[in-house]
Amino acid sequence: MTKKILVTNDDGVYAAGIKAAYQCVHDLGDVTVVAPSMQKSGVGRSISIFEPLRINQAGVDGMQAYAVGGTPTDSVILGIFSILKAMPDLVLSGFNIGENISTDSVTTSGTIGAAMEAASYGIPAIAASIQVLDEGDKFDDLRAYEYDFQVGIQVVNRIARNVLEMGLPPGVDLLNVNIPRHAAPDTEIEVTRLARKIFRTSVQERHDPRGRPYYWIDGDLIHDDEDGTDVHAIMKCGHISVTPITLDSTAPVEFGKLEQLF
Q1: Would residue 240 count as lying in a domain?
Q2: Average pLDDT estimate for 121-150
Q3: CATH number of domain containing 30
Q4: Three-class DSSP labels, the chain
Q5: Is the residue at 131 inside a domain?
Q6: What is the pTM of this model?
Q7: pLDDT averaged over the chain?
Q8: Where in the sequence is the domain holding 65, given as residue range(s)?
C-alpha cells in the first residue's frame, strides 16, 4: 500500500526549505504539503482556537501545496483532519532555515512544534533544520534562500525511508535532525541529547521618542556544550545531529522523593 506523507514547516509554504523537504520524500509515497501561508517561526506548538482558519491552494515551483492562515500546528491538524482525512504514515517538518538545537529550540520552534503535534497522534515524525552562520538569515525573505540542501536531502531521505519501513524505536516520538552549514556527503552523523541552552538570553531596553521604555529580547549563541549534546555536535564538531525526542516530559525521578515538598 502506498504510504501517505505530510510535509509542513514554520518558515511558510513558499520558503526554499519546504521545497527541499518535499524532495526528501517525494519518492517514498504520496506527499501532501500543508504549511503556514507566511513566516511563523518561534510559535512552538501554538494552536489557533480563537479565530477561524482558511486554506488556499498554492503552486510552488510545480509543487502543489496548501497554504494555511495559521500556525505550523494548525497546518498539521488541518492537513490530517480536513485535507487527508486520514492519519499519514509520516510527517516531515522542515527544512527550517536555522538550527533547532537545545531545549531552547525544542520548546519554541514551530518546526518541532508541528512534528510534536503529529507525534501526539502516534504518527512517526521528523523535524529537519539547517544551520545558519548569520542569525539574520532566519528572518529574511526565505523564498529565494540560497543553500545546497543536497546532503540534508540525502540524510533525511534515508532516515524517512527507514522510519517508514521499521518505525521509530520504542519511547521515541520524533527525530530532530540538524544539518551543519558546511555538511558534506561524508559528514559524521551523531546521535545526540539536548543541550540545556543555545542562547545566553539578554534584554535590551530602549526608549521611544516620548521617553517610554520598550524592550528587545535577544541573546548571543552558545558555541559549545558537553560532549554528546546537539550543541556540541553542530557548533563545535560540525557533525549532523539526530536527537530522539519524547513527548512525555515527566521527570525521571522516584515520585516518593517529592513527598517532602508537599
Answers
A1: yes
A2: 82
A3: 3.40.1210.10
A4: CCCEEEEECCCCCCCHHHHHHHHHHCCCCEEEEEEECCCCCCCCCCCCCCCCCCEEEEEECCEEEEEECCCHHHHHHHHHHHHHCCCCCEEEEEEEECCCCHHHHHCCCHHHHHHHHHHCCCCCEEEEEECCCCHHHHHCCCCCCCCCCHHHHHHHHHHHHHHHHHCCCCCCCEEEEEECCCCCCCCCEEECECCCCCEEEEEEEEECCCCCEEEEEEEEECCCCCCCEHHHHHHHHCCEEEEEECCCCCCCCCHHHHHHHC
A5: yes
A6: 0.94
A7: 94
A8: 4-197+226-258
